[in-house]
Amino acid sequence: MEAKVPYHHGSLRRTLIDVAVELIASHGVDGFTLAEAAKRAGVSAAAPYRHFAGKADLLGAIADDGFERLAADLREAVSEQAPDGGLVDLALAYVDFSVREPARFTVMFDAGGRAPRSNAGLAALGVLGGVLESLHARGRLAMPVDTALRATWSLAHGMAVLRLGGMRTIAEEDSPQLRRQVFTAMLAGVLRPD
C-alpha cells in the first residue's frame, strides 16, 4: 500500500502536481490516473476536479511547473562574465535538470495527452535567447540568433534525451567534466573566436 501524501489546506493543487510526478516516475505518463493521484493525496476522487479539468489539464500544469523550474535553473547558470556568455553552463544546467527531474522533463516535452501550454516553455527558452542576444550584441555569434537558439537547444536537448534513455555512450560515463568538454566542442561552431 502506497503512503498518502499529506497536504495543508489550500495546497491541494500543488500536492496533486507533486503526487502525479511521483506516480509518473514509477508508472509512466499513461500509467497513472487522476483518481490514483487523489487517493495518494488523501482526498476524494472528485477533489482534483476543483483544480484540474482532467488528467490532460494536470499534465499541462506539471509541464508548466517543470518549465518554471527549468527557467530558474537556467537563470542561475547564466554567467555574463564567461567567455561564451554562459552558453556551456546553460547546456549543462539543462541536462542536469533532466537528470534530476526525469518525470517532469518527460511531461514537458511530450505534448501527447496533456493540455498544451506555451508561456512557461517560451519563458524558459527566453533565458537561452537572452544569452544569445547578448552574445550577438558583442559580435560573438557565428550565425543569426534564431539559428543559434535552435542549434543550442537541439544540442542540449539531444544530450538530455540520450542520457535519460540510458544510451551507453552517454550514460555509462557521464561525468560533469566530460559533459563540459562535449558541450564546449559542440557549441564552438555557434561562437566566433574572441
Short description:
The chain is mostly helical and 194 residues long. The protein has 2 domains: 1-52, Arc Repressor Mutant, subunit A (Orthogonal Bundle); 63-190, Tetracycline Repressor, domain 2 (Orthogonal Bundle), CATH 1.10.357.
Radius of gyration, in angstroms, nearest whole number: 19 Å
**Poorly predicted segments:** none
Terminus-to-terminus distance: 60 Å
For the sheet with most strands, the description reads: none
Count of strand segments: 0
Number of discrete helical segments = 9
Mean pLDDT: 88
Q: Outline, from the CA principal axes?
A: elongated
Helix-strand pattern, N to C? HHHHHHHHH
Instruction: Report the sheet-strand fraction.
Output: under 5%
CATH architecture assignment name of the largest domain = Orthogonal Bundle
Topology-level CATH name of the largest domain: Tetracycline Repressor, domain 2
3D structure, described in words:
This protein is an all-alpha fold. The protein folds into two domains: 1-52, Arc Repressor Mutant, subunit A (Orthogonal Bundle), CATH 1.10.10; 63-190, Tetracycline Repressor, domain 2 (Orthogonal Bundle). It is 63% helix and 0% strand. The chain contains nine helices and no strands. The longest helix has 23 residues, at 55-77. The mean pLDDT is 88. It holds the Pfam family TetR_C_33. Residues 33-52 bind DNA. This is AcrR family transcriptional regulator.
